[in-house]
Amino acid sequence: MSWLSCGESKLRYLLARKDANEEFDEELRDHLRMLAERFERQGMAPREAWNAARRQFGNPVSLKETRTQMQTFAWLETLKRDVRYGWRSLRRNPVLAGAAMVTLALGIAANSTIFSMVSRFVLYAAPVARPAMLMALHTTHDGDTCCNHFTWPLYMDVREQARSFSGVAAYYELVPASVGGLGEPERVWGQAATANFFDVAQLTMTLGRGFSADEERAAVVVIGERLWRRRFGADRKILGRAILLSGQPFTVVGVAPPGFRGVELILNPEFWIPLRQLDRLQPNSTTFESRDNHWLAVIGRLKDGVTEAQAAAELRLIAGRVARAYPATDKGGGFRFERAGSLPPRDAATVELFLAALSAVVLLVLGIACANVANLLLAQAAGRQREMALRLALGARRGQLLRQLLTESVLLGLGGGGLGVLLTLGATRGLTAFHIPAPVPLDTTVSVDWRVLLFTLALSLGTGLLFGIAPALAATRPGVSNALKGEEVLGRTGRWWSLRNFLVVSQIAMSLILLCATGLFLRSMQNAASMDTGLRSQGVLTMSIDPRLHGYTAARTTQILAELRARVAALPGVAAVACTDVLPLSGGHRSDGFQAEGRPGPVQAIPSVEMFMASPGYFKTLGIPLIAGRDFGDESATGPKVAVVDEAFAHLLFPHENPVGQRVSSGGVIFEIIGLTRHIKSRTLGEEVRPVLFRSLVQSIGSEPSMMGYSIIARATGDPAALENAVRREIHAVDPTLAVFNAETMEEHLRSALFLPRLAGTLFGVIGAVGLLLAAIGLYGVMSYSISRRTHEIGIRMALGARSGGVQRLVVRQGMALTAVAMALGLSAAWAVAHLVASFLYGVPPHDPVTFIAVPLFLGAVALVACWLPARRAASIDPLAALRYE
Amino acid sequence: MTKEVSAKTDLLQGTLDLMVLKTLAALGPLHGYGVARRIEQLSESVLELNEGTVYTALLRLQQQGWIGAEWGVSENNRRAKFYSITRSGRKQLAKETQDWERIAGVIGRVLQLEGQK
């Protein structure tokens, strides 16, 4: 009998306990009845027969008790005994147990941390009822597989025609508003949605309700739970009260459930107003008639019993109908959808690849950790051979011993898992601190949720079995019984030596792959950090306001920005000050096509130019060198428009001429170029060269106001952070109700611009260091163990005249031979997988020679030290003591 | 329960398991009642059987994986659980039979020795 199958039957029994109990009762009852019938046939009266049957059968209750005990408690008892025994034997060797657990904890924590990202970004489901039925819909266009928003008419077509959905709602993704309540005014972001939004999402509101069907145009608002706590002190009487959003009254009808922040993956809106109210917060942003303007996100709830394939088929039909009805705008259009809260389809592949790469890497770390612990246990198994031999001789079955040893290793695994959870808690907090550069509110909190805990538990059990199985098999090998006669079975035979060597080789090979990846990412981070942005970031402070949210007109905005500039310039410690709309390297802002004006020949055009607004002093404040022409001056808001361009722009449109004085146009608006600057990075550090054009701030506020507010930038003579409160005071001196946001130094701003390389570099740096440490410990451990086993042999060699140097060489050569094999394997594997990470590297080729030369050398050096330390000990063996040793 | 009686039950327990196993090996699948009848018949009522203990034996054997159980229909058309011996059960039976015979032989010889005296 194997304990496994026996355990399995018990497990099955536990699961089906109720049925089995009833069946057993029935079985006993039948038996009694048949017995009674027999007695009746023999001539007894029914009642007498029944009594006789019961006498003969005995007590059924005690029988049932016996059965329960046999099937459950026996199992639990065995487990309890194994656990208790395992605990005792771990306690007997606390250093080994501790080392094993810490090793495993590192490996497990690395995996759990990456999995917590997977859980947050891939397995995330929108916080609504039955999230699997809620779909996010997108429009597609011929050839372009993905994805656009909906126009209002197209949304209405789908809403009216689609029978696969019980409801289809549309919303405008993010609209800013300043909100009053407790403390300084604050800019928050919300969404504007059709009245059925909350019915489609199906939420259990904290307070009140969502929108009702007749509230399409009503001035009502649903606020988020966090906003309610933060700005309104969780006041339950808020329902029915009007609150001011950017100065406009809205009546609160409900508070959304905790954790609800819309149905998207990382957007972080905090209030919801009806779509038809959007213009009150952001004038001219709704276009209900246009079939051109794609401005609405759409969600739909599948009807019960409708499959995704059926819905997709119906949407295809609708797309065809719409295309025939409106060929000018909707020809070639289509739809696609996925579960609400999924990764945005455009980025899904990249993010998944990144997470997959990380998962593979942390699995390597865990592999190294497991190999380490397996080696430790193998060494321990050698030390425990007498115990095992004794127990085998006393009649223990091999299965029982295996079970016992595996219980011990699973205990180690669970201990490591427990520690690992603690490490993961710290690591996720660190991950959450990484700030994605984006002008809109994102929630990228990574936390240890139930999925992560479950994953960690499974991992702990799994690794416990994985690293335990080989040592357990070794320790209980039948030949072990020779150990009773004093033979060193495990220390002597070649077979388990090779297992040990195999473990070390795979460990070093894995850590080489890991370190190559780490090296590439560190190089990429270094490259990105030293990349020339075109600006001087030291000593610059920035701070943003959005006067539009406070009902300011364009003229008033221009005036207030000018006043602020004057006030801040007058502050002590300010060298220069300027205003702009959005800072460079904010992840993307406004871009447009430009062409040269008034020139003969074919039209020269650039399809996409990054546009920034700039006040006088902008280039001085940000430290962007002017190559030719002049800075902005006192242009009038209505005068002829002027612009400053960067080298990239000039090179594309005016390759052989002086751009200053030339005229360019965009969408019919003509600009005269008055200055030329050095090239700057506009969106992200990793971007290809993007041409840039700076417009005059005063000439742009009226015609094209910024949706993201305006930033004041000040260059300090000393520490810019020290200026923050003074600048804030000046803003509130101008208008105390202005909400201030994005207060940061330019260096902080650039740090978030480094988000991706820094995230990847940090993750790989930590993981690589852990992997290297574990592999070095593993090699050291194996070499030490080998020497402790060979004390006798080395003693003889030295007694026969071997020099201490020769002995050292012997030991080091043995260790380095293993290292060399591992390096050859690891290096070729690393070479093969390097191109997988190529798309995440900044200016580093995947087969970067520096990395591929430095890493093996470095690892070789570490291995040399790990071998040399035990070698030195071997060389200092006193031959006499060694020979007397046995 | 006195020590003497308990020792006797222990002996019976092992014996009973062996008898149930042998019965199932010889007669094929049987329900609990059938096993009890067969043993009653064979033991000629010499073994004062507390009939319910057949089930203790059946459970024990099942737990060891020596017999299996399956629901079926009995001869008078009732639903009943049928027990049958498994392959490892047959091995165990062979082994225990051998053991039993060996011990019985030893004890028999020892007792004969006593008788000759």
Q: What value does the Rg of chain B take, in angstroms?
A: 16 Å
Question: Which residues of chain B form runs of ≥5 with pLDDT under 50?
Answer: 1-11
Principal-axes geometry of chain B comes out as: globular
Largest sheet of chain B: 3 strands, antiparallel
Which stretches of chain A are poorly predicted, pLDDT < 50 over at least 5 residues? 1-7, 489-496
What is the number of beta strands of chain B?
3
Q: How would you sum up the major sheet of chain A?
A: 11 strands, mixed
- Strand/helix succession of chain B: HEHHEEH
What does this structure look like?
The complex is a heterodimer of chains A (886) and B (117). Chain A is an alpha+beta fold. Chain A has 28 helices and 22 strands. In chain A, the strands form three sheets. In chain A, strands 1, 2, 3, 4, 5, 6, 7, 8, 9, 10 and 11 form an eleven-stranded mixed sheet that branches. In chain A, strands 14-15-20-17-19-18 form a six-stranded mixed beta barrel. Chain A has a four-stranded antiparallel sheet with strand order 13-21-12-22. In chain A, helix 17 (495-529) crosses helix 26 and helix 17 (495-529) crosses helix 27 (849-875). The longest helix of chain A is centred in the middle third of the chain and has 39 residues, at 345-383. Chain A is globular, with a radius of gyration of 36 Å. Chain B is of the alpha+beta class. Chain B is 68% helix and 14% strand. Chain B has helices at 3-27, 32-43, 53-64, 87-116; strands at residues 30-31, 67-73, 79-85. Chain B has a three-stranded antiparallel sheet with strand order 1-3-2. The chains are: A alpha+beta (886), B alpha+beta (117). Chain A binds chain B through residues 1, 5-6, 9-10, 23, 27-28, 30-31, 34-35, 56-60, 63, 66-67, 70-71, 74, and chain B through 31-33, 36, 49-53, 55-56, 59-60, 62-66, 71, 78, 80-81, 88.
